[in-house]
Write a structure and sequence with these properties.
seven-stranded mixed sheet; four-stranded antiparallel sheet; mainly beta; 6 helices
Length: 491
């Protein structure tokens, strides 16, 4: 999934996350590879094509009333406010036996994974108390889906609901009825009453949920006023503050209880992607792709910035937060008499957790990967085998000053790295596909869509040996494939 259309008529979209959703498919069958793509026919897309203009406000692009309407029609359109976009460009994942293209609002779109046809727009607010959910749910082995989104809690304050969607079963929950059986399993408080944090992903072990509340906040008053202020976008509603720091919230999975006594805090950072979270000897280990500081990374992803000359792109990246892969360790057993001492006793990490007199536990991370303006992002693991388990390998997209120019394999135990890189090639998120019957964690392949501008075949599907990060094959495509964000492998 990713953005595929960056202008409508003579009106441009301004942010990387504004382009209209385009779904891609590589069909590997009988020794042949066939490439397909289609625009998701969301309400946003259909109306934009019909009216030949931007109709619904996107992440960083404002929609304006139809200039062809008379002044009275435009006046009433203006005061109806901003419609919520259903432009599902971020990811695709299964719920029950169906597949949904998603963004981060309350709308998801059911698609046919074979024909890529758009089937149905679904409003999650009809089933769950959430204002929207992340594009990165977690899925248990039985098909149960968990996700998180902000909501209105007690006394009209903001909170976060973790929701559960049961798997498809014959009878009570069959196919699309899974959404009707969905429920809120636990509610977590917001550290600021009217300013929930931006959420892109969360952590889950067999027994716990981990939510990282970052200092990038959605100002609710700004958001509500944006519905009536001409020219406002979602990006206008974000604010951040270094003094807020970052909070880790912990909730028990089975008993559905928020562990309010465990108050974990650390210095400010941006977080978009969790790599993995697992339990070990009374601790919860949380591996994250972070960006140091409170400055919102998305501020640097406007298309005007990314289209600058390379030297200007590098200058902008120098002002942006520094990326790091970090490991945090959360102790489950908190001893009040051990104030000022490191509570982490795991032998293989330098991460610390120190209990303060006010009851908070200050966390310091172990850095697993860091390089000057070199990010390890869009992480993948052997999910079916390692989600919630102690693991060794993560795979990610290497960003050089925000530009994706390599694929990286990281040993999170030894910090050893392997790199695939080719001149003038720009890969996408590497999807890990395990070898059937594999005994080793990294026995499988990585799939990535690579763009090579100016080449005779400007795009190709790259297949890498996940153990050695060496090329096994590539399937060339005679057209440019626009930037892709996230995807999945469907056997």
């Amino acid at each position: 999934m990713g953005p595929g259309l960056f202008e409508v008529g003579d009106e441009p979209f301004y942010h990387l996350f504004d382009g209209q959703a385009l779904i891609h498919k590589f069909d590997l069958k009988d020794g042949q590879v066939t490439y397909y793509r289609k625009f998701i026919r969301t309400d946003t897309y259909v109306r934009a094509m019909t009216e030949n203009r931007v109709v619904i406000t996107e992440f960083g692009t404002a929609a304006y009333p139809d200039p062809c309407k008379n002044i009275f029609s435009r006046f009433f359109t203006y005061f109806r406010g901003m419609e919520v976009t259903d432009n599902c460009l971020v990811n695709i994942y299964p719920i029950g036996e169906d597949f949904y293209a998603v963004t981060e609002t309350n709308y998801i779109t059911k698609v046919d994974p074979d024909s890529l046809e758009t089937l149905e727009k679904v409003d999650l607010c009809k089933y769950l108390s959430v204002n929207g959910v992340t594009a990165h749910p977690h899925t248990d082995a039985d098909g149960t889906v968990y996700n998180i989104g902000n909501c209105f809690g007690k006394n009209m304050s903001l909170a976060y609901n973790i929701v559960k969607i049961p798997p498809a079963q014959t009878g009570e929950c069959h196919k699309s009825n899974c959404l009707e059986k969905s429920q809120v399993v636990v509610q977590l408080p917001s550290s600021e009453r009217l300013k929930p944090s931006y959420i892109h992903s969360f952590g889950m072990t067999d027994n716990y949920f981990v939510f990282v509340e970052q200092p990038v906040k959605i100002n609710l008053l700004k958001f509500l006023s944006a519905w009536s202020v001409r020219g406002a976008t979602y990006m206008d509603c974000f604010e951040s503050n270094d003094s807020l720091g970052t909070w880790f919230h912990l909730a028990a999975k089975d008993s559905a209880g928020y562990l309010s006594s465990h108050k974990f805090r650390t210095s400010a950072f941006n977080i978009f992607h969790h790599i993995n979270t697992y339990e070990d000897e009374g601790f919860i280990v949380v591996d994250l792709c972070t960006w140091k500081g409170h400055d919102f990374v998305y501020n640097y992803l406007y298309l005007a910035n990314l289209r600058e000359e390379w030297e200007e792109v590098k200058k902008a990246a120098m002002r942006a937060p520094q990326p790091e892969v970090r490991r945090y360790v959360l102790p489950l057993d908190i001893h009040r008499e051990e104030q000022g001492k490191n509570l982490v006793s795991l032998s293989y990490t330098t991460a610390t957790a120190v209990l303060h007199s006010d009851g908070t536990i200050w966390l310091e991370p172990e850095v697993l990967f860091s390089g000057p303006r070199q990010a390890f992002e869009f992480p993948q693991i052997n999910y079916t085998r390692c989600r919630g388990e102690k693991y060794s390998f993560a795979y990610g997209l290497g960003l050089n000053h925000f530009i994706p120019d390599r694929i990286i394999k990281l040993n999170v135990q030894t910090k050893e790295t392997w790199v695939w890189q080719e001149e003038e090639c720009y890969p996408s998120e590497p999807l890990f596909v395990p070898k059937p019957g594999a005994e080793e964690e990294d026995d499988g392949v990585l799939l990535s869509i690579v763009v090579k501008p100016g080449a005779e075949s400007p795009s190709f599907l790259l297949v890498l040996d996940a153990m050695k990060l060496t090329e096994l094959a590539r399937a060339a495509v005679s057209t440019i494939i626009p930037v892709t964000l996230h995807g999945m492998y469907k056997p």
